[in-house]
Write a sequence for this structure.
């Protein structure tokens, strides 16, 4: 019975943790509008041609290229500081073309976006998010300030690309937006550096379309086929890319909820069987207690106390197991907080409630024992 309670408690705690994590992920403010946005996975050498061609398509509102495509991979991080300050701060960063903010409708709150010439010549300018501006210049105006980039000379430019300059002037401040994995949580501040189409080192072209998404997709395929047959390997709606990140959390939630509920039913039935057996084994003792004047409350309290004692041991073991395996999950995703106190408390309380419910009938059965019949049979 103790093992049943421990396993049930563990499953319920896991279900609670995953539920809270799922709700947290679903409530994240992405800050980017993914509706009617497509990711065209095409060969990099065609990027400049594709951008030029798509600008003339009636269904295309905007097209852009980006180094780290949003919602596909974790954000890249870089150490920066306000010019003249020694303390460096880790922030996310990306290289984007000038239409990137129009694609996701990320508003420019102050300043401006990149000019065409700035993206072509790799100009030492940067656009920062609200959080980045607040962290680098608390209480001050970030516009026009200089950011110092602590370059470490990384070799793999595809995964660890860094700006070619050590200082960049802030030309714009944009609204906060998650452009990495949603489960990683809000960015600690984001920096956007300019990049032209042939210079992004990525095989994605982002397109915002007008009107019906299905017909717009067909028009995109036809336009790409005119450049080269079967040019687009994949055309992915960004809404689907975003939904795929939440889907595993929902599946984990339903699976853990099913296992937790099954464990709860098995635990309640197991407790009922054990307590009924204990009551039947102690029929003579209970009959004598009743004959000597023991009240119904004392008999019920005795039976319930036995079940709660075993349940407390099992619940403590289940909670201990959950805490023991917590480090395995704590380092995987920021969205999962295995040390969340609420799921632990609710899981233990549900197990104890099941124990009380399962002990109720055996305790009622114990109260109804006729002492005269019990003693006469002896």
């Amino acid at each position: 019975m103790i093992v049943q309670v421990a396993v049930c408690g563990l499953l319920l705690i896991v279900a609670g943790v995953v539920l809270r994590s799922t709700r947290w992920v679903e409530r994240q403010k992405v800050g980017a509008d993914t509706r009617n946005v497509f990711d065209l996975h095409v060969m990099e050498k065609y990027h400049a041609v594709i951008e030029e061609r798509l600008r003339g398509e009636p269904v295309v509102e905007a097209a852009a290229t980006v180094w780290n495509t949003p919602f596909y991979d974790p954000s890249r991080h870089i150490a920066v500081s306000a010019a003249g300050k020694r303390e460096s701060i880790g922030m996310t960063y990306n290289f984007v073309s000038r239409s990137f903010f129009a694609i996701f409708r990320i508003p420019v709150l102050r300043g401006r976006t990149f000019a065409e010439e700035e993206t072509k010549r790799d100009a030492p300018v940067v656009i920062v998010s609200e959080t980045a501006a607040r962290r680098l210049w608390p209480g001050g105006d970030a516009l026009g300030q200089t950011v110092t980039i602590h370059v470490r000379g990384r070799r793999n430019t595809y995964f660890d690309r860094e700006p070619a300059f050590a200082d960049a002037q802030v030309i714009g401040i944009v609204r906060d937006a998650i452009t990495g994995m949603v489960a990683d949580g809000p960015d600690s501040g984001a920096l956007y550096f300019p990049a032209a189409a042939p210079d992004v080192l990525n095989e994605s072209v982002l397109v915002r379309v007008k009107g019906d998404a299905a017909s717009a997709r067909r028009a995109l395929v036809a336009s790409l086929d005119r450049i080269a047959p079967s040019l687009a390997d994949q055309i992915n709606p960004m809404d689907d890319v975003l939904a795929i990140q939440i889907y595993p959390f929902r599946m984990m939630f339903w699976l853990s909820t099913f296992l937790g509920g099954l464990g709860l039913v098995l635990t309640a039935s197991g407790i009922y069987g054990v307590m009924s057996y204990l009551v039947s084994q102690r029929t003579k003792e209970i009959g004598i207690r009743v004959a000597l004047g023991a009240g119904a409350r004392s008999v019920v309290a005795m039976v319930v106390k036995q079940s709660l004692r075993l349940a407390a041991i099992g619940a403590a073991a289940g909670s201990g197991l959950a805490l023991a395996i917590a480090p395995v999950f704590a380092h995987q995703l920021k969205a999962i907080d295995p040390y969340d106190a609420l799921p632990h408390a609710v899981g233990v309380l549900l197990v104890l409630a099941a124990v009380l419910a399962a002990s109720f009938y055996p305790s009622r059965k114990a109260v109804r024992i006729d002492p005269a019949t019990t003693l006469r049979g002896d």
Notes: The CA atoms of residues 21 and 336 lie 5 Å apart. The chain has a mean pLDDT of 80. Residues 43-232 form one domain.
